[in-house]
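Troubleshooting entry. Yesterday's outputs looked truncated, so today I'm pasting the complete records for two proteins to confirm everything comes through intact. If either block looks cut off, that's the bug. Protein one:
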Amino acid sequence: MKRSCFLKIKLGTFLSVLTFSISAQGPVEDFTRYVDPLIGTKEMGHTFPGACVPFGMVQLSPDTDTIPYAVNGKYTGTVYRYCAGYQYNDKTIVGFSHTHFSGTGHSDLGDFLIMPTVGQVQLNPGTADNPGSGYRSRFSHETETAEPGYYSVTLDDYKIKAELTAAIHIGFHQYTFPQSNDAHIILDMNHGIYNYDGKVLWSYIRVENDTLITGYRITSGWARTNYIYFAMVFSKPFNSYGGKDDEQLVYKGFWRKFDQEHNFPEMAGKKLKAHFDFETGNGEKIKIKFAISAVSTEGALNNLRAEIPHFDFEKVRQEAKASWQKELEKIIIDASPEKKTTFYTSLYHTFINPVQYMDVDGKYRGLDHNIHQADGFVNYSVFSLWDTYRALHPLFTLIQPERTADMINSMLGHYDQSVHKLLPVWSHFGNENWCMIGYHAVPVIADAWINGIRGFDGKRALDACVASATHRSYGNLGDYIDFGYVPYESNSVGSSMTLEYAYDDWTIARLAESLGEKDIAGKFQKRSENWKTLFDEGTGFVRAKDKNGKWKTPFDPMHTANEGFIEGNAWNYSLYVPQDIPELIRKMGGNKRFIAHIDSLFTMYMPDKYFAETEDITREGLIGCYVHGNEPSHHVAYMYNWAGQPWKTQERIHQIVNTMYLNKPDGLCGNDDCGQMSAWYIFSSLGFYPVCP
């Protein structure tokens, strides 16, 4: 059997031998057995442990609490631990919802929570301290199984075994019940991640018959206007059903003439919950196929019929496993079982996002909230570009070239539909959420084009890049264009903006150059040198300036707040000039002083006060003042190579690989950020890294 676009390597040394095309006879090793979806960050707050297929829109996973985003109008802080909905240290499960992020530092989604129960119907989730006050259940990790495409756990309070698997648009549930005359499936339309009172703008449930339910909900969260439709099918007819809207309404219209809480086939509201009631024999399985669509209920039904037209749970589970194996075997390594677990779990993380955001017929909801047809490409969403342009997308150019072209076409569709005519910044589920800084769709596009990936219009892509880089109202670009930097009084993280814009501009110059657009290339090449405007040769650091060209004082290069930087300090961010490292070395005083700077970065002590108020950094993510848990430092260990001491790069890479990626529930040193942290590990294990994509 011939396999192309594969890597085959042997781990153990820093530099590895790469073969980009190999022939293999017969089946290769089962790499899914090395993946542990329960490996995550400290206290397991930011990873996705549930069931999905590679790049699938449905990511069906357990949620372990209902911590709100705010209480009495004030941010709770605790909600940050629930960015993925699941906390390893929690003792209860609230239910299983169908959409999640993996490893993000902000959150949304958690749509359509399902929970099986027995006994009296309860339509509130209860509390962790008193699980019996609601529908949640205690659970134990001893009965929990998580593997690619499959998740299982026993809900101890109900003696129900829950099993989950998935297709691209469908979550497939299988619940094994005890004998009961009072068994239920709860559907909570109000549940969500980073939830708050009023996040659900509207929800609707329609009982089509005694096995088919359809509906939708519209939410306003990180995705400001998010439409998701569903079609839910039971393997067994229910005996009765009901629901309740907990919102206290002043106006109830003439719907009040009906008993809408018992066996009424239309339910609607902003705080809606429903239940479907069964009688079960001991060991009886009730299966649920739950399809979603951003387009319509018809789209959800079409997805359902096309992807899983049967109720064979084990067949779908094996298909999900096979889809993961197909992706995981794109890189074949020779290593110990321990290393294989870390490596293939990391590779698994890189293939969760972005997600296919369109129906089986190619229809998708665009940024303009109109319905579009993907013509000749697969439309993707969930672009955490401030993180993923660094390593995840460069990895995709090597092992996912077709998907890379589709992702770029998706970005160009976003640009066409944008009222601002901008490429995505941080987008998900048909919305731009404007998180973080830079215009980092640009390096993704340029990197793909220059590395030979076609399948998209290069000239159109260049036009979109230029438009994104010249839109004066976005991200203080007007000041950047006028001053050559973003002044501190314009934006408190203006120094970070300036450095990242300068790098992005360099990639536009390279793209324009490759397309023969010399004038554009020259303009952006000049702009790529703007980093020099903020480099203080007196201190050897990049600093913040005001509009009059004066340095911000006082200046503390270790401080992470109010010094001009985001998710970093001057010690780390001063090294962010990937497009011109030789010139950076010269400005820092030559090789000897440059190496001393990096040495100090790794060996100094950073007092707690410098990161105590930073949610996403703990001491586990630090080596000295080097912050691996945040992305701006990810290239730093490789910079010794430019200064003539590559062995120090090897030493530090080995240290990071061996201490910050461990096979345990809190084995990651920071948010995985939609696969960026894991992609760093993949590259570094192979022996190279895209310092300047």
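Protein two, checking that the full record survives here as well:
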Amino acid sequence: MDRLQELVRLHRMGSGGREVARLLGMSPNTERVYRRALEAAQLLAGPVHDLPALERLLAAVEEQLPRKAPPQQVSTLEGWLPKIQELWKVGLGPRAIYDRLRLEDSDFREAQATLSAVKRVCVRLKRARGIRPEDVAIPVETRPGEVAQVDFGYVGRLYDPRSGELRKAWVFVMVLGYSRHMFARIAFDQTVETWLRLHVEAFEEFGGVVEVVVPDNLKAAVVRTAFGIDGPRALNRSYRELARHDGFKIDPTPVYAPKKKGKVESGVKYVKRNFFPGRHGQDVDVVSPELRRWVNEIAGTREHGTTHRKPLETFLELEQAALRPLPSRRFEPTVWKEATVHQDTHVVFEKRLYSVPWKLVGKTVWIRATASTVTIFCDEVRVATHDRRGPGHRSTKDAHLPEHRADLRHRSRGYWESRADRVGPDTGRFVREVFDSDDVLHMLRPVQAIVTHLERFPQERAEATSRRASHFGTFSYQGVKNILLRALDLEPLPAGTASTGSPQESFRYARSAAELLHGRTMFHESQG
């Protein structure tokens, strides 16, 4: 419309039609059409300094040159417009609507409607609906030191000298919202430990901590991708602990809304497109120092397209001083994990087993692991603490097992012989005899039962029982139990028949000859 006003001005200055068309960059035919329309409306002539308003020129042109209706006003999908509108309102896109109608409506399939026709209908619906408040992009201005956005970006494969192979690599990027200065590091995984460590390194590099960190909805940061004014947000407990230690807030990005962290999205794309092309297969120990130089010497000194300032210069002059001070104590990486207590009273963390009280079998617990310890909580109450590193793949505490079954986990002969020796020397000798009493059967279970039973009695009785059982060759748990039950350990062994320590040279009877004779007499009397 401003060109119409300029057309009137040039004609009032005495320019010819071809000259006006050339000056305005339009064809002579177009110039002639508009000139005649304005002449008919008596707007072309007049003083140069008093030009008609744009609204008046537009009304005159529309009156003299009414818009022609397109040749086809009826869509080939006219019969399906209500259904398309219904599906579009609930959030389906053109492709989803097209597929739904093909799947559910045989008439639609027979009509051989096209996806393009559905797209045109959706464009009409969107135009008729008009702009919505949520469609408006609101530029967010942040104060120095207020916000940092973080994300990972895949950068291909790099050589890892520690594993001796090419590995998938990601770049971790943290961008400060005010200055756009960034921190970038290469990582071979996106685990919780890596996520936390890179945050700590970023804040140390900046020399301070921001007020709010905006992460993506990746697993390391947000356990459940739920976000909204009323919706719950479940932050990873490890990340929450870092936030409490360093003193920042976490504001996760809404699901499927990458524009909500557009600063770091742009930063990741910039790093990937500017620094990483051509570095496939290079040694990470070579690439990492070059990346740090690039951040400071290239990315930090460029003129940013939005702020029109140099990020590193703006950071040093305005933003660094606004950061919160680093905590006095460096954060010790802490990993939280939810786990279920298995039937063997253990939970699994990083392929190692840790015991908990046996009554928690089947329950869900939380594991909190530092570099040195593993602490286990049930209903927010600490129930077990273990050293994270140790011999073997299992860390078990006897107190966590049922009292009468805790010792059964020990299966070595030496352990039970040592236990028996602590009861007394005669018991130690007897237990060794039990182990050697059968060349085929493993006598571990009888020994376990015998030793745990003898430990409940005074040493004098346990030792006397062992001597008597050894003397008569009684190597079963039930035989040892009967000796104590009938108080036979309190009776002296037959004179002149002391045990030689060899079961083959001992009697095989737990009762004396008098007892046997008495028993036989009573049997005959009962039969008579």
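Both blocks look complete. Sanity check on protein two: Residues 170 and 187 are 5 Å apart (CA to CA).
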